[in-house]
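Sample intake sheet
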Amino acid sequence: MEYAKKLVAKTHSGPQPQDQILGGVFNSLSWVGDVKLSAVKQFGLLQGDRAGYEATELAKQIAAAPDEELPPLLQRACLTPPIFKALFETFHNDEVSLAKIRQVAAHQKVHIDSADKCVDLFVASTEFAGLGSRNGETVKFSARDSGSSDSENAPSNEDEGGAANVQGERDSDDNTNKRRSSKDVQAMAATTELPPPSSRSRVNPVQVNITIDPTMDPEKLERHLKLLRGYGIC
């Protein structure tokens, strides 16, 4: 964290040559400074090349973050080196011995002469980042922080089954209501007596009195009678 703050301050105006980074940040122009520069770069806090190095966005966040926001940032930095990430992915949420960690480190192609040093750095880094706690020859690692997953918002099989049952009950009720409505209509048709067609079309009789003038012309009289017959009056 100290190096992150120094890197941010040193490269505030832009990338700086390697010699200035070694002397101004790591206080060494020798191989010791080179080793520290390489380590900080592996933790994702430094980017660039000999012509110009600068602090990464992660380094800037660590340098500016209040104490309560530091843990997740430090954990990101801790797990940036591939070997550290592989070891933590293997042992997260478990308590293991240093010998077991060393065995897995060797399996991850760590040179046998560097295995002990690798394990020491890994354990120290996880302790500093709050990802592990050492007790003698054993280390207890925290659970992996995978964040919220989509499955939390996804309905469970039970919920899906319940929803299907509810929908099925609704469909069943709808069908039942439809059948009931159909039966009700049929029952109404069966119990409602409608008058026969003849009675529905029957018209009350109308009595018409016709007075015939005996002096009327026979042809004219015939035309009047024919007209009355057309209306069914006579």
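Comment: Residues 146-167, 173-203 have pLDDT under 50 and may be disordered. Residues 117 and 170 are 67 Å apart (CA to CA).
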